[in-house]
Amino acid sequence: MAYRNLYSTECLDVQADPERKSVQLEAASSGYRPRYVTVEIESLGELDRLIAALSEAREYLK
Questions:
Q1: Angle at 9 between CA 38 and CA 47, to 5 degrees
Q2: Whole-angstrom Cα distance, residue 55 to residue 45?
Q3: CA distances from residue 19 to 11, 39, 44, 62 in whole angstroms, order as listed
Q4: CB 4 within 8 A of CB 17
Q5: β-pair partners for 15
Q6: pLDDT tens-digit profile of 34-55?
Q7: Do residues 7 and 14 touch, judged by C-beta distance below 8 A?
Q8: What pLDDT sits at residue 61?
Q9: Which phi-psi region, left, alpha or beta, contains residue 55 (left: φ > 0; alpha: ψ -120 to 50)?
Q10: Confidence tier at 32 by pLDDT (50, 70, 90)
Q11: Quick count: other Cβ atoms within 10 Å of Cβ 56?
């Protein structure tokens, strides 16, 4: 795996693997012992739906 880091904060990482054509989202809870959840996206349609949902969510922050 040769993931390329695209976005990183204390609780969220977005990485892409160009060879496998996949995107990985990793979210972590805060605290002494953080817990991690990783979502692997290998479908362009699924990624498009996520982008659309985030774009819609953006409107609520205006």
A1: 45
A2: 15
A3: 26, 18, 15, 37
A4: yes
A5: 5, 24
A6: 899 999 999 999 999 999 999 9
A7: yes
A8: 92
A9: alpha
A10: confident
A11: 9
Q: If DSSP states are collapsed to H, E and C, what string results for 8-60?
A: ECCCEEEEEECCCCEEEEEEECCCCCCCEEEEEECCHHHHHHHHHHHHHHHHC
Provide the token pair at 6: 């695209």
Name the residue type at position 30.
S
Are the CB atoms for 33 and 16 separated by under 8 Å?
no
Phi, psi (deg, nearest 5) at residue 7: -155, 140
**In this structure, are strands 4-8 and 36-41 parallel, antiparallel, or unpaired?**
unpaired
